[in-house]
Amino acid sequence: MRVLLVEDDPMLGNAVSQALRDASYAVDWLQDGRKASTALTHHGFEMILLDLGLPQRDGLGVLRALRAQGDATPVLIITARDAIEQRIEGLDTGADDYLVKPFAVGELLARMRALSRRRAGGSSPVLTNGAIALDPVTKTVSASGVEQTLSNREFALLRELLIRPGAVLSRAELEDRIYGWGEEVESNVVEFIIHSLRRKLGAESIRNVRGLGWMVERSANPGEAKA
Q: 57 and 11, same structural domain?
């Protein structure tokens, strides 16, 4: 999942960026509101973590512009502004959630998982297509009754496929969602990760749609998915 972090505090920005990478998110970090608005105009993200007290352009200004464009990307405000009136203003401006600093990284990640579930239209913390079940909290996956642990990249790619079972994602889309700016994308990395996942979950777990990309079957049974 590609996340945009907009935070001008270097220590907090570094800490949150690392925590997100450790949790298998691809994170891009910007430190002022004007650059954030520009990035949001030219790039797609699955979630935005937005500070309010930003240089160049206030976070609420970034949020207003985003919603005015009809962009419904989930926005989680992270800020030291803790007055009730400020929380109400942030939510009424279009934020999906509001977290006051200082906060525990565990709570931040839990709120992000909740927003992802809401966006996908589900309530269960486990992502599943009926044959594969992925737990975003423990980073474990089970298929045919067997539980496996995954690397960060394996988890990130499988999560993208299971968020929307039945949707075909191209190589470029998968690379964009599991790598952040400045991270080197190795040749054939998507094929390598999928090969590794198939070894763990079964050859029929991820289907290749020739010329288009990869998918997991919607509401599949273990014996029904196609290779």
A: yes
Could you report the average pLDDT of every consecutive run of 10 residues in the chain (227 residues)? Answer: 95 95 92 95 92 95 94 95 95 96 95 86 77 87 86 92 91 87 79 93 91 85 40
Using a cut of 0.85, tell me whether the model's pTM lies above it.
no
Four-CA torsion 28, 33, 34, 37, nearest 10 degrees: 60
Measured CA angle at 14 (ends 13, 20), to 5 deg: 85
Contacts 24+ apart (CB under 8 A), 180-183: 180/2, 180/21, 180/26, 180/27, 180/28, 181/28, 183/26
Q: Which residue range(s) make up the domain with 63?
A: 2-120
- List the structure tokens of 72: 């419904």
Residue that is written with structure tokens 């992925």 in the block: 134
Sign of CA dihedral 68, 72, 73, 79: positive
Specify whether 116 is located in the same domain as 8: yes
